[in-house]
Write a structure and sequence with these properties.
Number of helices: 3
GO molecular function: metal ion binding; metallopeptidase activity
Pfam family, one: Prok-JAB
GO biological process, one term: proteolysis
CATH architecture: 3-Layer(aba) Sandwich
Radius of gyration: 14 Å
Distance between the termini: 5 Å
CATH superfamily: Cytidine Deaminase, domain 2
CATH topology: Cytidine Deaminase, domain 2
Strand content: 35-45%
CATH class: Alpha Beta
Protein name: JAB domain-containing protein
Order of helices and strands: EEHEEEEHEHEEE
Keywords: Hydrolase, Metal-binding, Metalloprotease, Protease, Zinc
Amino acid sequence: EFSDQIRQVKISSVVIKIFKRYEQKEGKFESGGILLGYVYEDHDNIVKVTKPSQFDSKSLTFFNRSKIPAQLQINRSWKKSKGSLIYLGEWHTHSEIEPTPSKVDIEMIKKTFKETAMEIDFLYLIIVGMSNTYWVGKQTSNSLTKFDRIG
């Protein structure tokens, strides 16, 4: 669980297992995908993520998710859940023990927030580091706020 002292976000164990599988080891390219989940009155719950696609652009220090496969997954999940499982943001890996967003990451989540038609007024950015470490932030119209790990 992570919190910004106003709101909490919970990440399911299934999602954590996927993050662990894609932790960026030495010499491996960055990986990433989208976050899907539920929004409740007092917290958000990330229960599903997409895995990297063969159509993504990636290198040791760069990841750019392909839009078409991700949008198809968003549409399928939304339809199957009758509109309750929604797009909540983006995730990708960094080869750092204490991951932090790069300028490119910050610009990407700002741009995605501005250009995406959504029913929510925020998006999450999760950067998966090495050794079970994460940077979790929430992009709103005003800023990208880091969440602290609370559980």
